[in-house]
Amino acid sequence: MIGIFDSGLGGLTILKSILKTLPDYDYTYLGDNARAPYGNKSQEIIYRYTAEAADWLFQRGCRLIILACNTASSKALRQIQREYLPSKYTGQKINVLGVIRPLVEEVARLPKIERVGIIGTKATVGSQVYETELHKLNPDLKVFSQTAPLLVPLIEEGWIDKPETKMILKKYLRPLKTKQVQALILACTHYPFLLPEIRHFMTKRVAVPDPGEIVAQSLINYLQRHPELNIRPTSGPTVRFYTTDDPVKFKQLGEKFLGRKMESVDKIEL
Ligand code: DGL
């Protein structure tokens, strides 16, 4: 079973693409909606929350967890991979992956790319993880970052089509447009819910890759390279959803975001 974790509903943008690309696997989605947003919290808290979520998903039988959350990927993933898993799950064939590396590789590989924009939460932008990773692949890239702290709460409220959200979105995007970036990285898994507006505002001159599609492709490669995890397609694949907050609200918004029915959503405590 593959676990997909986010602070809230944003990871559904990643799950949606994964379900399209790899429909025959079992998935468990966990949204820590009760404690979202993570993006304004300290590294220590983000790490603790992410480790608690990982423990819960491992206990449910997941052998691979995708942190479908840039904030958790930028603030907790490295420590989880290097310290937490080796000490707590010594010798077990399990792993936790993030969403940053596949996006960085995609954008750094674009032809004639010189100027890249990043839009993300305060935690992700403050970590400078995207700059660091992009510069490892292409030291000449000029990277411009923008925090967008109001977008996650607006999306968690389901305010996707509201004019107020569009207005705030434009305010965040304008500085990046002015910098004439050639590609824009959506460094928060909530933002792809606004992908059509973002692409429209940035115009066709700017490449805005869909993070879900990129993560789904890299998951295919990862599963091929890691048969030892023993994650295999099943004849009756299941997708289960769990939230730490109100399951009714999660289902209502989640089905709209995911574009398919959720058979059940259960509330859990971390
Ligand atoms: N989807 C998370 C991310 O990608 C949201 C962050 C938050 O909870 O603030 O960063």
UniProtKB/TrEMBL annotation:
Residues of the signal peptide: none
EC primary class: isomerase
Recorded metabolic or biological pathway in which this protein acts: Cell wall biogenesis; peptidoglycan biosynthesis
One Gene Ontology term of the molecular function aspect: glutamate racemase activity
Reactions accelerated catalytically: L-glutamate = D-glutamate
Domain of life: Bacteria
Active site: 69, 188
Entry EC number(s): 5.1.1.3
Alphabetized InterPro entries for the sequence: Asp/Glu/hydantoin_racemase (IPR015942), Asp/Glu_race (IPR001920), Asp/Glu_racemase_AS_1 (IPR018187), Asp/Glu_racemase_AS_2 (IPR033134), Glu_race (IPR004391)
Binding site for substrate: 6-7, 38-39, 70-71, 189-190
Entry keyword annotation includes Acyltransferase: no
Identification of the protein by name: Glutamate racemase
